[in-house]
Every structure is written in C-alpha cells, then in structure tokens.
C-alpha cells in the first residue's frame, strides 16, 4: 500500500482558531497511526489579505501544539505561473471563458431573470446564485477585444463543455476516521476503509477558476497542489464537502489522480455557528495568552 500523504493547508489571512487546531491535530493523528507523511501548505493566493506576520503566527501556533511538518512548506504564491499555464491549457481546449461581469452586474441579471420567471434563482452549494452565463455567449472577437483593452475579468469553467470533456460518472472516494477508544493517545484515530459516493459537479454552475487579481482560484490551486505534492488523503472540514464535487471534475480534466477524502465535523461557537476568522472567532493566540496549555487544548478537542 502506498504510504499515506496528508496535508494541513491554512490561509494566512487571519489567526488560527480551534477549528484549525482540530483539523491539524486530526491530520497529525492519522499520519502517526498510518506511518504516513504530513505536509504543510500555505494557501496565500489572496494578495490583499495574506500577510507575512500571519505566516509566522501559523508556524508559532503549530509548534505550540507540538506539530511537526516536512519542510519546506509549499506556498501557493510561488506557483502562480503553474496555475496560469493550466488556465491557458483549459482555454485552448475551449473549457473556460473570460467573464467581465461585476458582482453587481451578476446580481442584477439574476434578479431580473427571477422576476421574469417568478422562480427563485438556483444557488450553488455556498448559497450564491448560479452565474446566469452573461459572458458565456460572447463572440470570441468581442471577448478578446475587451481583454486587449484591459477590462478586468475572471475565468469561468464552462460546466457543460467540461462535463462533455469528462463525462464521468464522477465519484468521490471517501474514508471514515475510526476511533479505537478514549484515552489511548493519538494512535486511537485511524483511516477506515474506502467508500465511493456520487459527485455532482454541475451544481456549481460555471465556477470561477481564475480571479481578477490572481491567475487561479481556491478550487484550481488546491487540486493542482494536491497532485503536485502527491497527497493521497485530504482531511478537512465538513464545510468543504461540496467543493469536492467540483474538485474531482477538475482532477479528471487535468488528468491527475483523486485523493481519498474525509470531511470532519466543525468546531462551533456558543451560538452553533462555525468558527471563522472573518467573524473574529477567538484565536489560538488568544487562548495561549489566557493560559491554555497544549495538553488541555488537545484533550478538549479529543486528542489526549
């Protein structure tokens, strides 16, 4: 059996919180029980929010938790040319198109279509209305002229053409995490047997795979990084489960293997909402300053 390769991949746009700690500790526990490898990836494609001091803070928090990763850590910002080349390859195959729509333009188009039909707009798994395809039918000459004029644009995957190029059926190979008992240390977590689940990439509509400000998106970068790093098991939060449907399609289009996936439960706040940097959830640094110890935090999260 291939030696498992797992990764923890935070974004340096805020401080780590308990949800990140659970994910990092679970990845570490599974590596320890399987004899696998544990990689760290810094997902710093957001130029407006990623900061060097937050990368240092991530390293401090992970060291405080007692976690060790193979070095050097992969940084997405150092591989933008690779992502750009893949978008260009998709363009050459007719699988993507430039989209010049602003959020306001999309919102108005969606609202107008809903008013005409009397039907509420369909939404993607994140709750955003599906892109109505305003730029999909632009004549190639018009689209090229706008690009040549420097009009800001994203690149969207043409879902219909993508599914024709990789018709599937698309499947997600998922694995459970089995706990052999409480109080037995980190080895009590292990990877269970594969199970196959159906994927539905079409529910994402025509997603953005390259942003205006960087030549990629989370979806494209994470798929390419997992392949480049030889990741065999992706262990991440349940909020990313729906993204996997799109990821297996991108893997098929690029021609790279699909890892096995496990999506763990999220750590929730007192109101039952998931922890988030954007909402100012209490950080690991705050807990450390308040006197929390690595041992007590591990125990609180189920990793004695």
TrEMBL record:
Residues 6-159, 203-294 form the Glutamyl/glutaminyl-tRNA synthetase class Ib catalytic domain. Keywords: Aminoacyl-tRNA synthetase, ATP-binding, Ligase, Metal-binding, Nucleotide-binding, Protein biosynthesis, Zinc. GO terms for molecular function: ligase activity. InterPro entries: aa-tRNA-synth_I_CS (IPR001412), Glu/Gln-tRNA-synth (IPR000924), Glu/Gln-tRNA-synth_Ib_cat-dom (IPR020058), GluQ/Sye (IPR049940), Rossmann-like_a/b/a_fold (IPR014729). Its EC number is 6.1.1.-. It is an enzyme of class 6 (ligase). The keyword ATP-binding applies. Belongs to the class-I aminoacyl-tRNA synthetase family. This is Glutamyl-Q tRNA(Asp) synthetase. It comes from Methylobacterium goesingense. The lineage of its organism: Bacteria, Pseudomonadati, Pseudomonadota, Alphaproteobacteria, Hyphomicrobiales.
């Amino acid at each position: 059996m291939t030696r498992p390769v797992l990764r923890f991949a935070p974004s340096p746009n805020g401080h780590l919180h308990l949800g990140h700690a659970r994910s990092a500790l679970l990845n570490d526990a599974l590596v320890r029980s399987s004899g696998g490898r544990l990689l760290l990836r810094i997902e710093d494609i957001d130029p407006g929010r990623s900061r060097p001091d937050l990368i240092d803070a991530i390293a401090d928090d992970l060291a405080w938790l007692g976690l060790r990763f193979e070095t050097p850590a992969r940084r997405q910002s150092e591989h933008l040319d690779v992502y750009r080349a893949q978008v260009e390859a998709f363009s050459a195959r007719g699988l993507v198109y430039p989209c010049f729509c602003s959020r306001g333009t999309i919102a108005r188009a969606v609202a107008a279509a809903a008013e005409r039909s009397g039907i509420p707009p369909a939404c993607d798994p994140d709750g955003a209305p599906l892109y109505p395809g305003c730029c999909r039918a632009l004549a190639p000459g018009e689209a090229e002229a706008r690009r040549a004029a420097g009009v800001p644009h994203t690149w969207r995957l043409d879902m219909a053409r993508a599914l024709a190029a990789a018709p599937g059926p698309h499947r997600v190979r998922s694995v459970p995490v089995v706990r052999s008992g409480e109080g037995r240390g980190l080895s009590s977590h292990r990877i269970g047997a594969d199970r196959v689940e159906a994927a539905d990439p079409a529910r994402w509509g025509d997603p953005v795979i390259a942003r205006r400000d960087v030549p990629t998106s989370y979806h494209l970068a994470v798929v390419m990084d997992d392949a480049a790093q030889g990741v065999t098991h992706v262990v991440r939060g349940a909020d990313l489960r729906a993204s996997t449907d799109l990821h297996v399609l991108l893997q098929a289009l690029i021609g790279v293997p699909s890892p096995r996936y496990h999506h763990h439960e999220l750590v929730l706040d007192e109101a039952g909402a998931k922890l988030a940097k954007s909402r100012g959830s209490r950080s690991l640094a705050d807990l450390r300053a308040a006197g929390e110890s690595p041992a007590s935090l591990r125990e609180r999260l189920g990793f004695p």
